[in-house]
Write a structure and sequence with these properties.
Structural class: alpha/beta
CATH class: Alpha Beta
Order of helices and strands: EHEHEHEH
CATH superfamily: Lumazine/riboflavin synthase
Number of strands: 4
């Protein structure tokens, strides 16, 4: 792989908030190096992350979602399943899978919370981009040292 490419998966639920993670990510990593994929919700992210990682086209995969208590099921179950699935996908494919999947303790669809979490997702997007660059650099350094031994 001559050029680093990053896959960015984002859940459509609460897209007005979740999409801000991509905004922050693109503040750090050039748009030309990022392929964006939309999924219905957080639960669909691990499978797509695994499929994208298996292609060998991506240096890292980032998955962003906002998992809130919708009153139908326990959001803790969904959040845990998503994070575990993302971690497992990374371990099985040897490609870093980074999570910007947040589960706020308190979330109500008010202007205040929407503004607060939109801003927070921009920050988390930048942090995930920096983490992707850092892990890419570290893995390249390890590979280089291994090849020189």
């Amino acid at each position: 792989m001559s050029k680093n490419l990053y896959a960015f998966i984002k859940a459509s639920w609460h897209s007005e908030i979740v999409d801000q993670a991509l905004v922050g990510f693109l503040q750090v990593i050039p748009k030309e190096e990022v392929h964006v994929f939309d999924v219905p919700g957080a639960f669909e992210m691990p499978l797509l992350a695994q499929e994208l990682a298996k292609t060998g086209n991506y240096t890292a995969v980032v998955a962003a979602a906002l998992v809130v208590d919708g009153g139908i099921y326990r959001h803790e179950f969904v959040a845990q399943a998503v994070v575990t699935g993302l971690m497992q996908a990374g371990l099985e494919t040897d490609v870093p899978i980074l999570s910007v999947s947040l589960t706020p303790h308190q979330f109500q669809e008010t202007d205040h919370h929407t503004k607060l979490y939109r801003e927070h997702f921009v920050l988390k997007g930048r942090e995930s981009a920096n983490a992707a660059l850092q892990i890419t650099k570290l893995r390249a350094s390890i590979a280089s040292q291994t090849n020189n031994d």
